[in-house]
Amino acid sequence: MTPKSAAAAARATVYGYPRQGQNRELKKAIEGYWKGRVTADALHATAAELRRSNRQQLADAGIHEVPTGDFSYYDHVLDTTVMVGAVPERHRAAVDADATDGYFAMARGTQEVAPLEMTKWFDTNYHYLVPELGPGTVFTADSTKQVTELKGALAQGLTARPVLLGPVTYLLLAKPAPGVPADFEPLTLLDRLLPVYAEVLADLRAAGADWVQLDEPALVQDRTPAELNAAERAYRELGALTDRSKLLVASYFDRLGDALPVLAKAPVEGIAVDFTEAAADNLEALAAVGGLPGKRLVAGVVNGRNVWINDLQKSLSTLGTLLGLADRVDVAASCSLLHVPLDTAAEKDIDPQILHWLAFARQKTAEVVTLAEGLVRGTDSITGELAANRAALASRAGSPITRDPAVRARAEAVTDADARRSQPYAERSAAQRAHLGLPLLPTTTIGSFPQTTELRTARADLRAGRIDTAGYEERIRTEIQEVISFQEKTGIDVLVHGEPERNDMVQYFAEQLTGYLATQHGWVQSYGTRYVRPPILAGDISRPEPMTVRWTSYAQSLSHRPVKGMLTGPVTMLAWSFVRDDQPLGDTARQVALALRDEVGDLEAAGTSVIQVDEPALRETLPLRATDRAAYLAWATEAFRLSTGAVRPDTQIHTHMCYAEFGDIVRAIDDLDADVISLEAARSHMQVARELAAHGYPREAGPGVYDIHSPRVPSAVEAADLLRTGLKAIPAERLWVNPDCGLKTRGWPETRASLENLVTAARTVRGELPAS
Predict the structure, then answer these.
(1) 76, 127, 656, 709: which one is catalytic?
(2) pLDDT in tens, 750-767
(3) What's the mean pLDDT when you consider all of the chain?
(4) Is the pLDDT of residue 1 over 70?
(5) Which of 142, 483, 540, 720 has the fewest CB atoms within 10 Å, i.e. is most exposed?
(6) What are residue 498's DSSP bridge partners?
(7) What would the pLDDT profile of 33-67 be if each residue is shown by its tens digit?
(8) What local confidence, expressed as pLDDT, does residue 619 receive?
(9) CA distances from 318 to 276, 282, 300, 459 (A)
(10) Alpha carbon distances (Å) from 393 to 312, 583, 709, 732
(11) CA quadruple 364, 368, 369, 374: dihedral positive or negative?
(12) Does residue 709 have an active-site annotation?
């Protein structure tokens, strides 16, 4: 096909769409089901209507081929585990008894069985449930979900493309099941898994699928020759099937690198490539392999992970270049749109001029359609859209919102000494022990306590004017009093104020810093029914006034025990925001770090002896390719040290990280130079403690003993066993006892019981230690 005919054939599509609904109907239905207020039939009816509505929205916007199978009650990787029959043995009875309850048991656990481990989806803030596999795993196909959703789209008269997680990525995301040797490689199960995918593909063809998309984002990471050979074998075998639809293998989040020639040669009909991340590399690689003659290329030229409008002219230029490299070029977002909010039209409080700079899922869909139209009919057909786009881009570039000379001057004046503590850790540690007087195995929590209905109601009442500021603050004071009182009675050593005034650990600070925009309805799924509203980092950052000192000082006035000051670190402030894309991330991180440095100084001056600067996103933001990591870690660790480097030696700096793979950033964790780090460890059975020990990590650490993402209450015996495991890697004088993460999503009854058991476990194991 010539470039001209390739353009004439171009179509608009996307890989996935936000699941929650305009008003988070899915979240409300699922949580209602968990509490027994919503029946299973009502839950499934809500989900079916959301799927129908999403598909119709896409079709009405001009999307020619809508995705199916991207919808999920909890997580699409968990859906794949169900599809291939890889249900862990401990969950099998629950799944057999009731498929819906069993599904949620795998996701959340029950009082009797632990859930699947959860971790970050590549370098995003979305969490997936980690498959557990072993040599004895038997795969069986269950295409019910995929076929049902495809038939729903076809019944609407739509052209639909089922989207499945590819077999290679599924196995590369998996871990050895409990009891399986740690060196077991799930990828060795590929030959066992491929026939199951073949069966699912046959079912989808029978149901009417013309194309099926197989997502292989793991191929944009550094892959070994054996892993690339596995990918080659997988798509050689799947491509050789006769009873199948046409196959589109999709990649996103980075450059394909050595995997591109593998896919280019595979007997599949289409490849989807990200042209927003490492676009030049992917363009060069496509040209180097001679293009994709005879294949469909789906070009992800609209950024599916950030909220800034597309540069339409630039994307059209990229698409024009691609026309000569494939038989057919289609236009898409770079990845599923589940990573962005639904619709800017719901945002009534953002300046209309700024709103024109933003594109959420519906606006990105419109951009994809516009680009496809321009590619097919020529730029004269989209003259109005191009003019409006140029005006919006120029408005943003020239806006005083984006640049503050004073902020930039301060950032440029930073020296290496500003990002270093005044004394080495050994001297600081001695000063802190003398100052704080803590026992061995000190207990603490990560920061937040349950965000009760009463707290959320008070916050809503304040926004609606039903109560005044004085009434709201009285409610906050009462909550802090209750949290401090509970911790003292329970015997926790280092307290927190519970963060009742904070709606979100990033949004709370963003609303008090210049340069940030807050949304009212910009919800994005983080995991399961946990949705967040990432703020939008639009301009230069500064801190007009203290943000946390007042409530931290009030909490400290209620207790003689130390109360931690709680801040969100600079990398996490970037990672959990929609960050500006008009300057290097390191420059933005330095601005945020300087604002936090001011806050740390004010907390210390107010008498706060323990200050925690959370960086749960340090690992998730790690570039997917190893060659890009050193530069990232250099500015990321410097930003943390810049935030904390000015405190006295006897002020103890904590940090916290959760739900990520830490083994490959242990050196960076060391480079943060925090005095204490707390990390997720309960679901991974203290794996991180072993990783810290292997690195020779010299400071204090609190690997979590309470999995807060499950409603189950760990017993004191269970927590004590985890502590004993931790002690095999970390000596008692450097081991802390804490939950995996903050407690805002938990209820008070389970929180009380779990923390009481945690303290009991600490006391039990403390009593087993040899006398010093």
Answers:
(1) 709
(2) 999 999 999 999 999 999
(3) 95
(4) no
(5) 142
(6) 448
(7) 999 999 999 999 999 999 999 999 999 999 999 99
(8) 87
(9) 10, 11, 10, 47
(10) 10, 15, 41, 56
(11) positive
(12) yes
Phi, psi angle pair for 96, to nearest 5°: -65, -35
d(CA 294, CA 286): 14
Helices 629-644 and 585-605, packing angle to 10 deg:
20
Six token digits for residue 107? 């996701």
DSSP state of 494: B
CA–CA gap between residue 506 and residue 519 (Å, rounded): 13
The region of weakest confidence among 452-456, 670-674, 733-737 is 452-456
3-state secondary structure of 167: helix
Express each pLDDT in 543-569 by its tens digit.
999 999 999 999 999 999 999 999 999
- Residues 511 and 627: their CA atoms lie apart, in Å, by 35
Token pair 């937040």 is at which residue?
448
Q: Taking phi first (over 0 means left), then psi (-120 to 50 degrees means alpha), and beta for anything else, what does residue 272 get?
A: beta
Q: Count Cβ neighbours within 10 Å for each residue of 493-526 and write b for 16 or more, e otherwise.
A: bbbbbbbbbbbbbbbbbbebbbbbbbbebbbbbb
Three-point CA angle 69, 74, 79, nearest 5°: 45
Start-to-end CA span in the chain (Å) = 80
Rounded Cα distance between 251 and 693, Å, is 36
Q: 658 pLDDT band (50/70/90 cuts)?
A: confident
Q: Give 677's strand partners.
A: 655, 701
**Total count of residues recorded for the chain:** 772
Where is pLDDT greater, at 307 or 691?
A: 307
User: How many Cβ atoms are within 10 Å of 656's Cβ, its own excluded?
Assistant: 27
pLDDT value for 248: 98
Say if residues 648 and 600 touch (Cβ distance below 8 Å).
Answer: no
Please state, in angstroms and rounded to a whole number, the distance separating the CA atoms of residues 136 and 120: 26
| 710: alpha, beta or left? (left if phi > 0; alpha if psi -120 to 50) | beta
What are the strands of the beta sheet with 246-250, ordered from one edge? Answer: 66-68, 160-165, 211-215, 246-250, 270-274, 292-302, 326-333
